[in-house]
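INTERNAL AUDIT FORM
Audit reference: QA-55
Scope: verify that the stored structure record matches its stored sequence.
Auditor: D.O.
Record contents follow.
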Amino acid sequence: MAQLPELKRAFMVDSVYDPLRRAMPQGDRKRRGEPARRNNASDLYRDIPNYDLARVTGAHARSAIATAKELGADLRALSAESGIDDLEGQLPETISVDSYLKFLDGAARHLKNPLFGLQVGLRSRVTDAAAYALVLLACKDLRSVLEQVCRFESLSHDLFRSEVVEVAGVAHLRAHSPWLDRPGGRQLMYAAAAAVRPQAEWLLGILHIDVRSVLQFSATFDEPPARRGDYERVLGAQMRFQADFNEVCFPAVLLDLPIPSADPSLFPALKQVADGRLAARCETNSAPIVSAVRARISDLLMHGNISLPRIAAVLDTPPRTLQRRLAAANVSFSGLLDTVRREQAQHYLQNQSLSLTEIALLLGFSEQSTFNHAFRGWFGTAPSAWRMRAGDSGASCSAPGRSA
């Protein structure tokens, strides 16, 4: 298997990577005695419900339960502690995030195994993402795989939201979670990190690329009592603690390498099915006031000067009342405006007869440069590049980790 020494030199050498780390904005870092600091993680949390409503599918939880059983945990005790009934039988379609985190925390303690979350991640499979697994298998390259993960992961869980950021030739796959301070939060991030390894071995192994030569993991937590070498042995790559983000980094050139086993011809149809499931989920979770505000924003967007007071006037609702009702639905006006613009931008860019200036005006931007700046924030690329890639793939691309 090829080691790709040129990629390793460009990525792993400290003289290249450390200046990059120092230049990165403060993100989800968690230090002793101070709260976690986040960069724009709240944008990614828009579609995560309140803690008492957040869910995990049984398919996603299956790996954790199977791992605990394989390692000899007392499933009866864990069932009582987590509130998940009949862990050895048929799991319900969904369980609460609270129960899942309690299970992770309880299993680690019962087994006296600080690496439990890593063991869970190693046992994960693409099929754990049951609602959109076939979409991933049809993706033409790693970039497309990660875009679909970020788009559809809410169909599997409300544990965290992912995003892909490219900086100076390095791709950063980040997991942002609002639950890190809860019992089980550390094990959750360990599982998310370790899950990268089997999936990366599946994807990159097809391309004859040695995963160990190109991955680097980072965690926001303090370094645990267990030896660092134990973590790096399980992950198969270097591990950094007290970092700015929970992430895995790799050379960005890997994003566009083709996956020989994929069948891209199936991608549009499979993605359409997953999009339908996502739309149904959003409709189920969306309060009527959210739908009403989205509709009014969409109607008035091209006229510019969209504001909460203006939408409140159209809905014949006092602005403060509208703001409170949106907050009760776990959304913000600025978040809805951003989401509608992002979705319409995707739609308009697929119409080749519209210029970028025209699209900017349709989205309520006064200048194309403002639209370009906003678009880069949504997708990490210029609208012209997005349009070209969407045309090449024959299917619309999605914003990493962002859905309303």
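Auditor finding: record pair retrieved intact. Residues 1-39, 394-404 have pLDDT under 50 and may be disordered.
Action required: none
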